[in-house]
Amino acid sequence: MGHRRMYNPTNGNGGGIVAYYGTKRKVFISFHQKDRAEVDAFIDRWATRESVFIPKALGVSDNDDFIDSGNPEYVMSQIRAKYLGDSTVTIVLVGQCTHSRRYVDWEIKASLTQGEDPPNGLMGIILPSCGATAYLPPRLEENWSKGHVNCYARYWVAPSSVTELGSWIEDAFQARTTRADLIKNSQKMMKYNAECRVCGKTH
Question: Do 24 and 54 meet the contact criterion of CB atoms below 8 Å apart?
């Protein structure tokens, strides 16, 4: 896809904290382990305390026996069965180095896979430590456009209210049927972690 760029996510317009009365969707959280503290804080606030969604936050690791398989279809099926499970939306929490992580790429690819079951809705949320800009994981970037024009995925700054986050999740859930034709998922899986464009090295 050529030179990667840093992107400003779309700003939301949420207000103060209010009770959330919408449907609680099951959400798979994709992230880089380096950002675990921020990820835990996000889940604690929005899932545990505010009850906006039901989280699934355990992802692919070096301990999985399928990571060395040369069969992409097998790997995708294992990720969907073992981690995505019955989740319907995938949120990628984007930190400084998330774009370079192969397991994040695999989780996004599995989320976008269309087969017997609908794909997961897909959205990215930038973590506070990144400020207002971050490099996107390539597969998320391919499914997003500035202004959310003719694209499957969405990309946001941190939500400011339960209503705001809930509406984002619901939009992603509905996209599984209303925008599925916009999914781009033909890129091969990342075989290795890429060089981080921020740190200039492969972690």
Answer: yes
pLDDT single digits (tens) 2-44: 444 566 676 554 444 467 889 999 999 999 999 999 999 999 9
pLDDT single digits (tens) 141-199: 999 999 999 999 999 999 999 999 999 999 999 999 999 999 999 999 999 999 999 99
- 66-88 burial by CB neighbour count: b if 16+ within 10 A, else e? eeeeeeeeebbebbbeebbeebb
Residues 6+ apart with CB under 8 A from 89: 25, 26, 27, 28, 53, 120, 121, 122, 123, 169, 172, 173
DSSP 199: T
Strand partners, 26: 54
Fold adopted by 25-182:
Rossmann fold (3.40.50)
The distance from CA 3 to its chain's CA centroid, rounded to whole angstroms, is 21
Measured CA angle at 94 (ends 32, 188), to 5 deg: 70
Distance, CA of 202 to CA of 152 (rounded, Å): 29
**From CA 23, how far away is CA 101, in angstroms rounded?**
31
